[in-house]
Amino acid sequence: MSNPEQYKAIKEFLYKMSDDQLIMGHRNSEWTGIGPVLEEDIAFGSMAQDKVGHAYNFYQLLHEMGEADPDTIAFQRDEKDFKCCHLVELPIGEFDFTLVRHFLFDHAEYIRFEMLANSSFEPLANLAKKYKGEIKYHIFHANTWIKQLMNGSEESKARIKSSFNELLPLSLSIFEPGPYDDILIQEGIFGGEKALEAKWFETISAITADNGIKLPEVTDKTIVYGGRKGYHTEYLKPMLNEMTEVLRLEPGAEW
């Protein structure tokens, strides 16, 4: 790859995707042992494993491009060096909160990987084609639960609607524009965050409307921006401390 700016663009893009996957995977893993039913312990554990695996492979691709090894990237960076969006950083809360976040995030990821399957950067296109198939099951899980709970009790309907009202504005942090978006688009690497957001909103609007959910209007998207530039919520640092506790006790440990 001869163009230095293109090289920087791909690295920045890989960091934000991999950090999203790692942090979301950790949050999903926190449901192990406390899910509302045993099957959900297993389901969220499985999805967590997928996401951490995706993060590892993205970090490995970064390593091949001259960055540190995956363990160092994942466990030995400062909070300010992470490029994850604010949505993934939030604590798991109640099950309705986690479920709606899962729905919003994974629909965005599925469309992102669909777009990346045609990327001009072949290593990324190959990973996207593989991950798209895995994320398909994640969104099936989310869609099934949304439908089930919206056909349930008055309490379950109210909880789901309330979580959409809270999380839809925060979910726009996924699409925070980066400094190299124009290069990614021009070089055919990725179609851009605006295009992704438009496809995502069309998709989730249809599903939520079918289930009797009215999405709130969001007028100021910039209120949730910052994560891609290293400005994070109050929840990321404690989570990173917990996530790296074993490494700090035993620096030679492998993940």
What would your notes on this structure say?
The protein is mostly helical and 255 residues long. It has one domain (4-249): Up-down Bundle (Ferritin). Helices cover 66% and strands 0% of the residues. The chain is built from 11 helices and no strands. It has helices at residues 4-29, 38-64, 70-75, 86-89, 95-116, 122-150, 154-171, 181-186, 193-210, 236-243, 245-249. Helix 2 (38-64) runs antiparallel to helix 6 (122-150). The radius of gyration is 18 Å and the shape is globular. The chain starts with a helix and ends in a 6-residue tail after the last helix. The mean pLDDT is 92.
The CATH homologous superfamily is termed Ferritin, core subunit, four-helix bundle
What is the makeup of the main sheet? none
In round numbers, the mean pLDDT is: 92
What's the N-to-C terminus distance? 30 Å
**Number of helix segments?**
11
Q: What best-fitting shape do the alpha-carbon axes yield?
A: globular
Total domains, how many? 1
Counting helices, strands and paired strands, the structural category is: mainly alpha
**H/E element sequence:** HHHHHHHHHHH
User: Beta-strand level of the residues, as a percent range?
Assistant: under 5%
Radius of gyration equals 18 Å
CATH second-level architecture: Up-down Bundle
CATH topology: the name is Ferritin
Broad CATH class: Mainly Alpha
What keywords describe this structure?
single chain, globular, Ferritin, mainly alpha, 11 helices, 255 residues
